[in-house]
Amino acid sequence: MSRPDDRAPDQLRPVSLTRNWTTHPEGSVLVEFGQTRVLCTASVTEGVPRWRKGSGLGWLTAEYSMLPRATTTRNDRESVRGKVGGRTHEISRLIGRSLRTCLDLKALGENSIVIDCDVLQADGGTRTAAITGAFVAVADAVHWIAAQKKLAGRPEQVLHRSVAAVSVGVIGGQPRLDLCYEEDVVADVDMNVVCTGTGDFVEVQGTGEQDVFDRAQLNALLDLGVAGCAELAKIQQLALSA
Amino acid sequence: MSRPDDRAPDQLRPVSLTRNWTTHPEGSVLVEFGQTRVLCTASVTEGVPRWRKGSGLGWLTAEYSMLPRATTTRNDRESVRGKVGGRTHEISRLIGRSLRTCLDLKALGENSIVIDCDVLQADGGTRTAAITGAFVAVADAVHWIAAQKKLAGRPEQVLHRSVAAVSVGVIGGQPRLDLCYEEDVVADVDMNVVCTGTGDFVEVQGTGEQDVFDRAQLNALLDLGVAGCAELAKIQQLALSA
Amino acid sequence: MSRPDDRAPDQLRPVSLTRNWTTHPEGSVLVEFGQTRVLCTASVTEGVPRWRKGSGLGWLTAEYSMLPRATTTRNDRESVRGKVGGRTHEISRLIGRSLRTCLDLKALGENSIVIDCDVLQADGGTRTAAITGAFVAVADAVHWIAAQKKLAGRPEQVLHRSVAAVSVGVIGGQPRLDLCYEEDVVADVDMNVVCTGTGDFVEVQGTGEQDVFDRAQLNALLDLGVAGCAELAKIQQLALSA
Amino acid sequence: MSRPDDRAPDQLRPVSLTRNWTTHPEGSVLVEFGQTRVLCTASVTEGVPRWRKGSGLGWLTAEYSMLPRATTTRNDRESVRGKVGGRTHEISRLIGRSLRTCLDLKALGENSIVIDCDVLQADGGTRTAAITGAFVAVADAVHWIAAQKKLAGRPEQVLHRSVAAVSVGVIGGQPRLDLCYEEDVVADVDMNVVCTGTGDFVEVQGTGEQDVFDRAQLNALLDLGVAGCAELAKIQQLALSA
Amino acid sequence: MSRPDDRAPDQLRPVSLTRNWTTHPEGSVLVEFGQTRVLCTASVTEGVPRWRKGSGLGWLTAEYSMLPRATTTRNDRESVRGKVGGRTHEISRLIGRSLRTCLDLKALGENSIVIDCDVLQADGGTRTAAITGAFVAVADAVHWIAAQKKLAGRPEQVLHRSVAAVSVGVIGGQPRLDLCYEEDVVADVDMNVVCTGTGDFVEVQGTGEQDVFDRAQLNALLDLGVAGCAELAKIQQLALSA
Amino acid sequence: MSRPDDRAPDQLRPVSLTRNWTTHPEGSVLVEFGQTRVLCTASVTEGVPRWRKGSGLGWLTAEYSMLPRATTTRNDRESVRGKVGGRTHEISRLIGRSLRTCLDLKALGENSIVIDCDVLQADGGTRTAAITGAFVAVADAVHWIAAQKKLAGRPEQVLHRSVAAVSVGVIGGQPRLDLCYEEDVVADVDMNVVCTGTGDFVEVQGTGEQDVFDRAQLNALLDLGVAGCAELAKIQQLALSA
């Protein structure tokens, strides 16, 4: 049983991280996982929301969105419908949580970072690509703050962990890494694994909408996910040292 | 290091499931996990949404909400703010997904079930209590449909699996089952485990907002969660056979 | 012509007021008028809205809502529809007005009370049950503020009047007290009477959607309503002295 | 104690009803109660809402609104705020209910009438002026439908009752008819009385936001209101026979 | 080819400007272009929005709206639909821009003017009538501020230009001034011309939804529009000197 | 007085049109006017909106939006604010109108095209770039429909005109073509010119927010705009023949 693009079950799609893809944001990264393309920007503002003022701590939030025709058929704009949908909310919260876990908000000082992840083209794994790309955009933004002499600590203190994410799933009984859309829709089990560069877990979300799964399957998926995140961490490293 | 209510680390809070707590719905269950109290109702309508008509399959959705003063301080109503928040969306989707995995929608036939989980009092674990109580409400609703002779299959076909859920977390290095609010806010890692009555996984969501976690911790939490769900499955069984 | 539950025309349904039904709010009362069940909570915050600051006067507002399946068929949530409906608005305003008339806002001092009346089960008279229960919740909240030494006056000054409410209506030419749902839908005339404990009127709202009514009918309904409120005032008294 | 405009306590302000004030609507009446000016239009469409189809019954709804600067200071538009306020909802519902009570919806046949009451200038009593003017607009609309040969019955069957409304209130202990704004804001008790042309009640709403009121005061207010509505009914008659 | 009301191609409809049409606003003008009737009010508040504080400059915004039955068939209210439509937004912005261009905001000082243009009856050219009427309302408001001794400069400094607007269009190849609705819907090209009293352009918007247009047609339309605005400027002058 | 990028006053920025920039849409064009980058997609669906069914005519609408950080500082998402802003509405309507004028909707047959113009990076002229790019996306979509044998006429009938747009403005008295952001914010007069490939006007919008303008300036701007559109038409031609 081969994959649509003939990858090995434990193989990532070609991953690319293009820094400074747009010029205005303090961090701007185009991340590609195969045909999935997400523009991740990090916008910095001095100061923090009112409820956090005087705490000495920074803040980070994230917003995820899809262009209406990022997908095979067109989706109505959430701005036109007048509300943000459940899936969008859920993914935005996941991205924000994952990135916050990996920043030292005290070393960031009272600065705010807003991450925007806009999916230009979707082919499965948009949320994991978004997390992976957003980390690089945040790293660029942190260095930008440092260059402005506004950082409370040193950049490497703020960025004390890296974070990357990948999807894994079971298709026809076979655990696979980094599902494309065609695989995603037929997966019995679907899991997103978010790991630090040192292999610890930040978030694990496994769902069996088509079927339930047992401990052995769960373990196989975790193994795949951890390995995939380790590869992505290296690619992030490379991109940041370029 | 003892728990606020002196429970053992692997001990559930007192759980109670009161069927027919209100009289109008086809299924109506008040579920209590200690001080957490959620009213779960299942509302049946004949037919399915337009996009599903003629498929022969039933449908189920869920909506979760909190009364404004279910919590220690008052939250503004989402109806007054004019939009459903991200947390509410996320939990509603989790409840719906979990319940759908455990129903045979073909045996349900073209009937729709809407689950409403309204938190009357919150003390941690509201989403897991909601799933656990909602399953019992759905079971009552399925039998109600059967009594109306509108079920495509037999009730035990529709309800081919049971589902229950529990939260687990790491506090001060110690894995614990069924966190109350006081524990929840200080947990380093927080996980929700949704299992079938036969111990398979339906959904696993682990989050390390305060800290990351390693594979050993993840395994300990999964063990606790699976055992907790098994106990809850028995309590559901008992309630349904009363 | 007998009533669905064989009551006399001037007889209330069994009324019950359970204080401290939930533990978080400063006042929390479950009120039951027969099968109608409303949770009334009073939430206290120090200070008043901006436009009232420095006035020395307190403030009170109320919000009424129904759980989606409090009724015989399910109603969509107002949070999901994105707006509060006209009926909800109208009842929330009535409850707030009625309670404010009965508080000495100067003796309350610059404290705010938000009343939430959530209908758990509806069988007619939900707004009048809400007012009746909310008064007791407010009384508990006022005593709570006093215990915090934050009250400008004494509790009995703040609570210088009690307030209760009941519905009355004409069914088949016969004036009746405290209509249940089955009576409500067939009533020619429907009136809500809100009285103080000393028998004065706070609000009178009579509507003839099915038919018009003459002065004699209006007088008969007022007589019934005043008597009903007097009984409810005694039940409130009893509950508060328990 | 004299009134701001030296009227007797039981005296209406100058009332004027101008038919065909605008040309597009099937009924269009500018009603003036002193400085209060409301444009009441009645829009007819063939057919009824889906839930009423095949019933043989007509339908009528009403929407009330104020221009932003109808009042002494400017109010934000509800369209800009994105929601209809509680007061607007409440008045729209009152107008619709009052008019429906006075139409024979069977004789109307499956036609729909939408009433729009837009306050061009406000000086107290806008809702009662709106009801009084809207009746005349509806009468014109009913005759328009008759002229199109689309009425199920005869116009005088449809319009089997007339309806008018007036506000009354207690200021400094004195009951007064038809309060202007200056009186309205200082009234202890405020009541709206809606009567048929034959003196029956359609709706009675008395509110004591500043103070409570006793039965004697209530009776005095009802007497004033009934007399005021009788005068208004004559003015309506005159306008319609012009 | 004659016009519906037998006007010459370069002839305006009868124009009327009634000042102080309502009494509350600082400026209140009913403008009529034939059957088109728009109430333009100018509301003054001391101070400016937060982002402009301390600049020494005043501010002006405008909101345009139509009553639901200003038109031949009824339009739903934007308040009920919960959002302002694109056409409304576009016209509101045009009115605000046109008026701001003609005020010296420095001479106005830190005062804010809100213009409301509510269409009571629509027969083509509502936006151009609104601009023409609003200028007169603004002039009255500026004099009102001066009378309060709150103006930074002299009124004639603030009102250093007058502004008026008119629609022009091509119907059946013929350029015409001030289209009524019947002409507007069949126009191949539709243009709105906004000019100062000295004949300069403030805004030119030409649209060919039915057909495209060439430079000669554009020039003919501009000639007509400039001449029309000059006439309107005289009528404004006259109204203001009355 | 030289331009920020040293262009001649009548010189366009480097323009690029990349077809098939994303793979899902029936037409997908990345248009660049210097640093301004807009993704224009055309989505085809069979059939037309209900109100147009059976007319034999096709339909086209457009939606414009900016990514939150397309600009120098971040703008809140319209989906999060729950409403589409006035500027967005205005531009969406302009794009839709311009494209519709250039299609033969009868030859299109009952097919619908939705254009989405999402600004990835903004540097002035986003709306004119969007129109220019959208035409190419629509052309690709029309050929796609033809390939599906669903077009009523031939592609060249549907696309009977081409359309392009460019901004022009007066800076320091000098008329300039294709303003970048730095020029746009200081322009006294700002005009958008939309022309067909044969040099006719589709839309002309000139605004003098900073200052008014006379006929000579208007003529100079029109000359520049027409010439700019002619160049753009050639670039479109080239892109489509590639």
Automatic annotation (TrEMBL), chains A, B, C, D, E, F:
InterPro entries: ExoRNase_PH_dom1, ExoRNase_PH_dom2, ExoRNase_PH_dom2_sf, PNPase/RNase_PH_dom_sf, Ribosomal_Su5_D2-typ_SF, RNase_PH, RNase_PH_bac-type, RNase_PH_CS
Swiss-Prot/TrEMBL catalytic activity: tRNA(n+1) + phosphate = tRNA(n) + a ribonucleoside 5'-diphosphate
Binding site for phosphate: 87, 125-127
Superkingdom in the source lineage: Bacteria
GO function term, MF aspect, one: 3'-5'-RNA exonuclease activity
Biological processes per GO annotation: rRNA 3'-end processing; rRNA catabolic process; tRNA processing
SUPFAM superfamilies xref list: Ribonuclease PH domain 2-like, Ribosomal protein S5 domain 2-like
Assembly: Homohexameric ring arranged as a trimer of dimers.
Sequence similarity: Belongs to the RNase PH family.
Role summary: Phosphorolytic 3'-5' exoribonuclease that plays an important role in tRNA 3'-end maturation. Removes nucleotide residues following the 3'-CCA terminus of tRNAs; can also add nucleotides to the ends of RNA molecules by using nucleoside diphosphates as substrates, but this may not be physiologically important. Probably plays a role in initiation of 16S rRNA degradation (leading to ribosome degradation) during starvation.
Name under which the protein is recorded: Ribonuclease PH
Gene encoding the protein: rph
